């Protein structure tokens, strides 16, 4: 099984690494989410790979994985019900934005696209993929996979027609950041938002996410399979669902592909 071939790059933790959080650094792996599924960590564990041979995004789409970009997964063992566990995608999105600001020193240009992308200057910089294992109303492990175009992005003709054009951090800002440095910033940012979620629930995450939401108050298209709904993006509700005001009325959309 070639995707199990791996090389630990480092066993040392940076001095500013969050306490109680583990880190695994790999050279080549099929995907960090696939690797995380093999673990049963007793503590939150970040898995970072220099390269993925089978990276994937939402709906099984391939995620191109050249060296120098960021491919990581946070493996958790949550105790909440599946609906509450899934809200951690918003914690991850907020942490991603904070990490981008931390490594660049820039405070403008970064926006959050529902449900799980981070944009830079209107282009897609990063994506998040949540996968879980368990049965019924019990999730035994959550994997939060994150990909960031640090130095390279796919060409526009390599993505779905109408999708947001990918960009890289380097091309948009001229700043080169290593995956290891980005991981440290992200791990600390996520630790902050996880603590907020644990202490106060989804409400503060929702409020902060909406402050940075792309196309809020504008007309967008929500596509589910072959069905599309066009309307004004009004907000997200307490479950994280998109609230769209259409000609047929107000709709709550729990999952969809968004185009604008």
Describe what this molecule looks like in 3D:
The protein is of the alpha+beta class and 260 residues long. The chain has two domains: 2-205, Bira Bifunctional Protein, Domain 2 (BirA Bifunctional Protein, domain 2); 219-259, Roll (SH3 type barrels). It has six helices and twelve strands. A seven-stranded mixed β-sheet has the order 1-2-3-7-6-5-4. Helix 3 (88-104) crosses helix 6. The N and C termini lie far apart (41 Å). One of its GO terms (molecular function) is biotin--[biotin carboxyl-carrier protein] ligase activity.
Provide keyphrases for this structure.
alpha+beta; SH3 type barrels; 12 strands; 6 helices; 5-stranded antiparallel sheet; 260 residues; disordered N terminus; 24% helix; single chain; 32% strand
**Radius of gyration, in angstroms, nearest whole number:** 18 Å
Uncertain ranges: 1-10
Summing up helix and strand content along with how strands pair, one would put the structural category as alpha+beta
Query: How do the SSEs run, as a string of H and E?
Result: EHEEHHEEEEHHHEEEEE
Distance between the termini: 41 Å
Task: Identify the strand order in the major beta sheet.
Answer: 1-2-3-7-6-5-4
CATH second-level architecture of the largest domain:
2-Layer Sandwich
- CATH superfamily of the largest domain, by name, is Bira Bifunctional Protein, Domain 2
Q: Could you say which overall geometry the principal axes of the C-alpha atoms support? A: globular
């Amino acid at each position: 099984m070639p995707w199990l071939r791996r090389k630990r790059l480092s066993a040392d933790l940076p001095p500013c690494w969050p306490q109680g959080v583990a880190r695994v650094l790999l050279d080549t792996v099929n995907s960090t989410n696939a690797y995380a599924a093999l673990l049963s960590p007793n503590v939150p564990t970040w898995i970072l790979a220099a390269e993925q041979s089978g990276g994937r995004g939402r709906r099984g789409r391939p995620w191109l994985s050249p060296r120098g970009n960021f491919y990581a997964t946070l493996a958790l063992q949550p105790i909440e019900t599946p609906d509450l566990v899934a809200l951690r995608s918003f914690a991850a999105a907020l942490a991603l934005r904070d990490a981008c600001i931390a490594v660049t020193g820039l405070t403008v240009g970064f926006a959050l696209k529902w449900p799980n992308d981070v944009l830079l200057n209107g282009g897609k910089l990063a994506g998040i993929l949540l996968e879980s294992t368990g049965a019924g109303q019990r999730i035994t492990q959550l994997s939060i996979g994150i990909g960031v175009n640090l130095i390279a992005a796919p060409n526009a003709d390599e993505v779905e027609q109408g999708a947001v054009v990918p960009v890289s951090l380097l091309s948009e800002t001229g700043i080169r950041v290593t995956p290891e440095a980005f991981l440290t910033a992200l791990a600390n940012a996520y630790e902050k938002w996880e603590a907020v979620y644990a202490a106060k629930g989804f409400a503060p995450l929702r409020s902060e996410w909406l402050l940075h939401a792309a196309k809020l108050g504008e007309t967008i298209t929500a596509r589910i399979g072959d069905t599309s709904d066009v309307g004004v993006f009004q907000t997200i509700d307490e479950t994280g669902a998109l609230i769209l005001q259409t000609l047929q009325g107000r709709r709550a959309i729990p999952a969809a592909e968004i185009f604008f």
